[in-house]
Every structure is written in structure tokens, then in C-alpha cells.
Specification:
With 427 residues, the protein is of the alpha/beta class. It is built from 13 helices and 16 strands.
């Protein structure tokens, strides 16, 4: 049981965070409305708003003129206060995007990865170069970046230091965050890509308004980000959601993790392409690039191509069985299908997935679960990675400190920020 005492500073930070979160997620508001929405006193809200405006985090933007009483200033979050960088670090591709404070995208860099780049030291070089490139494209300095979030295709374990496990690359406890911190002074935050994507869909996409949901990443790898009662469900070592490595067929297809029959080995991008190759070895839909093959398969299915339709139907049936298992186990309100393969094929497969889930899921959890497509498209993981840093910013109601070993958000104290002469101020 924790014996940590709550200090005046803790209460002040909590109140600042409450006010800033209301403005961030509910949009522009006035001091009287913030007082009602937060349950804080008018004097406390006035003090906090004054601080946030003085620091440049919040702006006054016009007047709210009620039918009765005096007008009040409309307040909103200042998009130009600072930036976040989100890194979608996948198995075959890396997407690095720069966002303003409200997570509007302002620049992006996409890097194709080759098998010889899967050593940690090589990936660090690629990430650092891509981060610098996106900063240069947007004209943003280190001082203007509030944090870098990174979504990785594996388990991110948090013990005495952050370490990454990627079975298909034989990574065990790779100190990726510490390695990056040797090259970057910007605060770095890291999580599994499916977890990051789930947070983005919950905050800004298909999951808004839901409290118990599973967001599925269908790409080269397959995973799930889980939210229970509005909070991420991580498990003992932050390894919850490795749904792609549940067994769907005993002694089935060989998975990249070394086991057989994993769901990923049957519905991931490689499995879909292998299924196409087995059905039609000389198919013109087969391309050197996996993404191009998936796009061609999608287009062919839309025009009624029998081989493409058969491949997608079989994939959707297996995916439906995997989703039914997840629904029986987790009982979510909503299942969201995303990831780069999910974005391109999800619409075609959704009717079959729903049909299989209807027959394979138990009636009670099956009836309560809605299945939908993600709304954030290819930006979902990068945006979700950026929310890892945003989450700490909102908890602090200010920038995070620069220590590479970040404690939980609730323990992080606000720090003073030097204002760059290059910082834009929204008028």
C-alpha cells in the first residue's frame, strides 16, 4: 500500500490538468463553463487559466456572449505552443510524423526498412535520421518538440529501465529508449504499436465515447490494444494484447515468432500473400512490394476477381474466429479493425467477419460487441505514439522533464519551459 502524501503541489498540478483536459477534449470554453465542468471554484479556475495563458498553452479567442450576464472570453488550447513527434516503427516500414499541440499533422517522413536493418543499433540510426528530417521539413527545433512517442512491433517492458522484446527479430530486453536518448535530448516515450493505435482511436477516432474496447492492428504483424473501463489494460509486464500469437490452428502455418498456428501466421500480410500465391502462383496481383500486392488484391476483389475474393473470404473467416475468441475472453463494447492491412482490406472483409463472429462468439458478449473500421487510417500508430507524449503533457499541464527514464505520468512534476524566439504564437 502506498504511503505517499498528497502535497499542495500535487493538488495544484491535478487541478491544472483537469482544466486543460476539459479544454483539450471538449474544445473552446469560457471560465464560467470550465468552473461548472470541472467542479472547481471560480477563483481556482481563474488562477489556472491565468497561468496557462501566461505560459502560452491557452489562448483567448473571442467572446462568449450569453443571453443573461456579462460576456466571457472564449479560451482554447494554443496549437502553436509546441509539437509532438510520433514514430510508427513497423516490421517493414517506418512512418515519422510531426504534429502540433492539438495533433494536427504538419509533416511526415516514410522510410522503407530492409531485413538487414533490424539490429537495434541500425534502427536507432534510422529513427534519429527520420526524426531530424521531419523536424527540418517543418522548421522545428528540439526546443519546440515536447516529446517523441514511438510505437514498436513488440513488447515494451517497464522495469528499472524500458526494454523492448521483438520475437521475430530475436530482440530480448533491447534498451532502445536509452540508446535513442544518447542521440536525442527530446523526452522519449515508448509502447507497443497496437497500444498506441488504440489510444489514438479512443481519443480521436472510432473509439470515442467507449470505455471497453479492443483495437486490432492488422499489418505485417497482428496485435491488439485493449482498454478496460477507459484505461489501457497492460497486464503484469505490459505484454497484454499479443492477440496475434494466440493459436488459431494447431500445427498450422509457421509464424515469425517460431511457433506454429499463430493467428498472425494466418491473417497477417505475409499469410494473405502466401494464400494468394498458393491459389494462383502466376497471379498478376503478386508484386515485389507487399503493400502493392495487398492494394492489388483489394482492387481485384472489388471488381469480382474470383481468386482475390476467395483469398479475402478465407482470411476474413479466420480473422472472424480470432475476433470471436477475443470477444468471448474480453467482452468489449467495440472492436476496431486498423493497421495498414486493415485499412486496405477491412471494408471488404467486414461483412464476412461479422457473420463468423455472430456464429462463433457466445451470444451475450457477441450481442454487446460492435465491430467497426478504424478512422485514423495510416496515421493511426504514429498519432497514437504522439499521444504517449501528449498524455504526459496533459497530466503535467505542461512540458515533461527531459530524463530518459520517465516515471508514470501522475508522478511527473511540471517544469518551466524556455520560450524559443522561433515559437509561433497564434493570433
Amino acid at each position: 500500500m502506498s504511503t505517499k502524501r498528497t502535497t499542495i503541489r500535487d493538488v495544484s498540478r491535478s487541478n491544472r490538468s483537469r482544466v486543460l483536459r476539459k479544454l483539450y477534449f471538449r474544445g473552446p470554453s469560457s471560465r464560467p463553463r470550465l468552473t461548472r465542468d470541472t467542479g472547481l471554484s471560480a477563483a481556482t479556475v481563474a488562477t489556472i487559466v491565468g497561468e496557462l495563458c501566461a505560459e502560452g498553452i491557452v489562448l483567448e479567442a473571442g467572446l462568449d456572449e450569453p443571453e443573461v450576464g456579462r460576456p466571457s472570453a472564449i479560451l482554447k488550447v494554443n496549437p502553436a505552443y509546441g509539437s509532438f513527434i510520433g514514430v510508427d516503427f513497423g516490421n517493414t516500414q517506418m512512418r515519422v510524423e510531426l504534429f502540433d499541440l492539438t495533433l494536427a499533422k504538419s509533416a511526415a517522413v516514410v522510410v522503407q526498412l530492409t531485413p538487414d536493418q533490424n539490429e537495434a543499433a541500425s534502427l536507432v540510426e534510422v529513427i534519429v535520421r527520420a526524426v531530424r528530417q521531419v523536424q527540418e521539413t517543418a522548421g522545428v527545433s528540439d526546443e519546440d518538440v515536447l516529446g517523441i512517442g514511438i510505437g514498436v512491433p513488440g513488447i515494451v517492458e517497464r522495469s528499472h529501465e524500458v526494454s523492448v522484446h521483438i520475437a521475430s527479430w530475436k530482440w530480448q530486453q533491447a534498451p532502445l529508449q536509452a540508446m535513442l536518448a544518447e542521440h536525442l535530448t527530446i523526452p522519449i516515450f515508448m509502447d507497443n504499436g497496437a497500444n498506441a493505435m488504440a489510444q489514438a482511436e479512443m481519443w480521436f477516432g472510432a473509439g470515442r465515447g467507449y470505455h471497453n474496447l479492443a483495437v486490432l492492428l492488422l499489418g505485417t504483424g497482428v496485435g491488439a490494444g485493449l482498454f478496460a473501463d477507459g484505461s489501457p489494460y497492460r497486464g503484469t509486464t505490459n505484454a497484454a494484447g499479443e492477440w496475434g500469437h494466440t493459436t488459431i490452428e494447431r500445427n498450422g502455418r509457421l509464424c515469425r515468432c517460431g511457433r506454429r498456428g499463430c493467428l498472425e501466421a494466418h491473417v497477417g500480410a505475409k499469410a494473405i500473400i502466401d494464400r494468394l500465391r498458393e491459389s494462383a502462383p502466376s497471379s498478376p496481383l503478386l508484386r515485389p512490394d507487399p503493400t502493392e500486392t495487398i492494394v492489388a488484391l483489394h482492387e481485384a476483389a472489388r471488381t469480382g476477381d474470383e481468386t482475390a475474393t476467395s483469398v479475402l473470404t478465407e482470411t476474413a473467416e479466420l480473422l472472424g474466429e480470432g475476433i470471436a475468441n477475443l470477444i468471448n475472453l474480453f467482452n468489449p463494447e467495440l472492436v476496431v479493425l486498423g493497421g495498414w492491412v486493415g485499412v486496405r482490406l477491412g471494408g471488404d472483409m467486414l461483412p464476412t467477419i461479422k457473420r463468423v463472429v455472430e456464429t462463433e462468439a457466445l451470444p451475450a458478449p457477441g450481442r454487446s460487441a460492435r465491430i467497426a473500421l478504424g478512422q485514423l487510417q495510416d496515421d493511426a500508430v504514429a498519432m497514437g505514439a504522439a499521444t504517449l507524449a501528449l498524455e504526459v503533457f496533459l497530466a503535467n499541464a505542461g512540458p515533461p522533464r527531459t530524463s530518459p527514464d520517465q516515471p508514470p505520468a501522475a508522478e511527473m512534476a511540471p517544469v518551466k519551459r524556455r520560450h524559443s524566439t522561433s515559437r509561433r504564437t497564434e493570433q
